[in-house]
Amino acid sequence: MGQPSTVAPFKKPDTAPPAAAKPRRKFLRQNELVDLVKAYQPDAQEDELNKAYVFAVMKHGQQLRHSGDPYFAHPVAVAGLLTDLKLDQSTIIAGLLHDVVEDTDVSVDEIRSLFGQDVADLVDGVTKLPKVTGSRTYNPPEFSPNTLTVGARFRDRAFKDGLVDDLRIFNRAVTELEAADLHRSGALAGAAPEARFDYYLTNHDPAYQQARGSLQAARAAQTDAAEEAREIMVMRQSFQPRTAYVLRRGEYDQRGESVAAGTPEILPPFPASEPRNRLGLASWLTDPRHPLFARVTVNRFWQALFGHGLVKTAEDFGSQGDQPTHPELLDWLAGEFIRSGWDVKALLRTIVLSETYRQRSFATPGIMADDPENTWLARGPRYRLPAEMIRDRSLAASGLLVEKIGGPPAYTYDIPESFKPAPAGKGEDLYRRSVYTFWRRTGPAPVLEAFDVPKRVVCVVRRDTTNTPLQALVLLNGPQFVEASRALAEELYRAHGGQRDRIVAAVFERVLCRPPDAAEREIIIRLFEDQLAVFTADPRGAETYLSTGATPRAVGLPPPVTAAVAVVVNTLMNHDEFVMKR
Amino acid sequence: MSRRECLNRLALGLGGIALADLLRPEARAATPAPGTAGLPELPHFPARIKRVIYLFQSGGPSQLDLLDPKPLLNQRHGEQLPDSVRGAQRLTGMSGNQSSIPIAGSPFKFSRHGQSGAWFSELLPHTAKIADDLCIIRSMHTESINHGPGVTFMQTGSQIPGRPSFGSWIDYGLGSANANLPSFVVLITKDKKKGQPLMSHLWGSGFLPARHQGVRFRSAADAVLYLNNPAGQSAKGRRLALDRLRELHEHQFAGTPDAEISTRIANYEMAFSLQSSVPEVTDLRGEPAHVIDSYGPNARNPGTFAANCLLARRLAERGVKFIQLYHQDWDHHSSLPTGLRSECLETDQPAAALVADLKSRGMLKDTLVVWGGEFGRTNYCQGPMTANNFGRDHHPRCFTGWMAGGGVKPGLTYGETDDYGYNVVKDPVHVHDLHATLLHLFGIDHERLTYRFQGRRFRLTDVHGRVISALLA
Predict the structure, then answer these.
(1) How many domains does chain A have?
(2) Cα A222 from chain centroid?
(3) Domain range spanning residue A66?
(4) Structure ipTM over 0.85, yes or no
(5) Are B271 and A580 within 8 A, CB to CB?
(6) Which secondary structure element, helix H or strand E, spans residue A199, and what is its range?
(7) Is position A422 within any domain?
(8) Cβ contact, residue pair B384, A160, below 8 Å
(9) pLDDT tens track for A189-230
(10) Residue B204's closest chain A neighbor by CA?
(11) Among A171, A203, A223, residue at a domain's last position
(12) Which site in A133, A450, B17, B205 is 20 to 30 Å from A399, CA atoms measured?
């Protein structure tokens, strides 16, 4: 027989009566209890109830509860509670006797001989239980993984249409024979020797017990290993797909006809040879004869390069979407894409080497006025870079970018600022490409959110791009960008031996990918001199500014000059050409 | 002097004269800078209000213990709720499993207040004092039975996340009145760890452009993300850097006269203004002590509901059109008597003070204050019921909220629920109706403010909603 595991320590009643304690509370008298039972069970045996009442009072004798009440007040109160539930006579008697085996010299056999098998089983069951919660009086103090709850849930008022009869807890699986013996005492003793094999192995065979011990240890090791691994959600098709129904007027409990997965009739038929699952769907979708897939895909790449697609409603090629502006071009690109064997790189090369793409993004005022959205492509693309590219670009320009591929999400500087904050990461996590930035669904990283990444509440294939003051604050003040600025300043200072004019030429090229013209050079030099004056007057400010971020500071550089260069870098990172593709 | 203090003092006009010209005049004065335009066709008709302060009580405050007294529940306290009251209506998954659903009377005393004789429970002594300013709606009803969909429905007109919030529609339609502040600001009572979670999609712009989403002001040092200059960079150094950046942009614009570049120039100036206008609005040092005190003992503690109510008034003064407060922890499934008392202690005085403060400044005539949650609570007890403790489950079929201010009838108690407080029996007001009415007060026909997305035109009120003209003054 397995040992019942301890759920909560059972509070033993005090056995030594405190000197001054006296019974204080009125409790249910013998005749009152009998009347209560007879009120709903007229054929109850009065003698049996009386016998149990007297037996309990006698056996608990002088025991006192903490409260000072005689101990037998407790079983009597329990019996009273059971009459509220209108339970049968045996249960009421078991309620009266439920602690005598536990706390006095009475044995279960004695109960059996005096009150019968039924009552004995009930008392035996209660005796083996350390503590049970989950009844009419259930009122959880709070939830903990170590609380076992029976028949109740969270804030329920008890459980409905039933009662827990007998509950025992074991720390291993009981064998069939043991289970039978629990239900009907003696089943074990009466079983044929061959039927006791499992029981024998479990309880008496050292080799078996040892093997079971090592199996348990192995399982524990496996569980520990699994629990240490980071869990990610994956999608898997259910083996038994649920039947879906048309819901009348959308009410979830108003089922109409059942429906199965299928594809729209206007599109090519689903091939009979394909399985009707996601694999089949992928085959159907990428069939070269499918009229939509290649067009939709090349349109999205076009959108990525030009800022808008040949079909502007990239998410909607249906009757409610926009017409393609250049239908023949879309068809040709789609055809080439299929013929190349879905070669994305070749597609991108074709587009970016085209004359259309390589045009200047700014045209004559006439053309700009005639076609403000560049629908007809008489000029090159112009749009604000996506959030990820802006952050990555600053990291790349500064030399801090970590180009490692793959791995778990990275927690950037701004995650602690998000609506559901989490601590920022350390080391290279801070400089990974933005595609690895931790993304809580509906709460993207604040820096990315400022630059219009969607919340992923709904599927978005076309982001809107805005131009707001809040973006300026991120680029000017965000630690990621300030750190990138000072890191590049430190590098440039060292590379050019602190010579102003060489630094100015290099910084422009490094950040904006082109040399400055004469006017720009002059503005940058004034910018540098302004900042140098400010930081020379405030060397501690320079020190502080250069301490932004986790990257160690370069040693031996004069803080005011380096800080002035850092502000130059940061100013160029706020330049239109840094965030706009033109 | 810290940078923050420096900016604050500049904003209050106490800074050095040499630096004064670094700030735009709008930022120094309390008069708002001209904002961005909304839709040209709006308003559809003259507006009654210019702004809304929405005091959202998240979790579902118990109408039966606050604003909709039901003596019958006290008479029949402890009895089973008759099936005839409930009809075939389903219960929540949480109390549907209960072995009994005993009627729970309110342990709180109700009395009538003001000329209008409106009823208030003893938990709302301050709100009771402004009885004659309130337009109380007892017949609100909604469709969702749980918090996530319920709050989303109340804020966006749809139970499913992804639609624009009310404030976003207002910003999209009407534009902003002050370029130095966002026109849709969100303030959340801090440290409410027990309440139902709030999600940022509640003030999201859905399919409207992202600039229309609410800007959450935090109670931290940076009310807006990265508002302050990085440590070590002085306001003077920043101003000089921005001047050179402006020159670079102007030079670029001369060769490439693209409107995007002029927008960028303007945005950097606005960002600089925000750095002073936001601290200016959140800094209470200019408020007279008696005004702060009227909002109650928590008003000096930033991020409390009281401090947020006062901040809401300051934002309203500066032209912010939609100020959305959230106060969590009204979800009293259990321990309702203590829980409700504690939330009322935090919210009753500030909410009433806000209305009184607006009124004393003459702002209540064109400001609307709205108070309410996402649904009500059941007339029966959830969980154990003892002499001094019980709980109530979610109840979407009726709940009570109030409005005060421009365009609505003061001193009105509108709508009726049955004697058990279970169903609406007169003048129902659906969530869509409330939205239609609020838009109407802004001068907007809720059927004509639409946005085309994924092949159809969407409205805040979907295909529903009617203006409740009986509420209009």
Answers:
(1) 3
(2) 23
(3) 1-171
(4) no
(5) no
(6) helix A197-204
(7) yes
(8) no
(9) 888 888 888 888 988 899 999 999 999 999 999 988 888 887
(10) A455
(11) A171
(12) A450
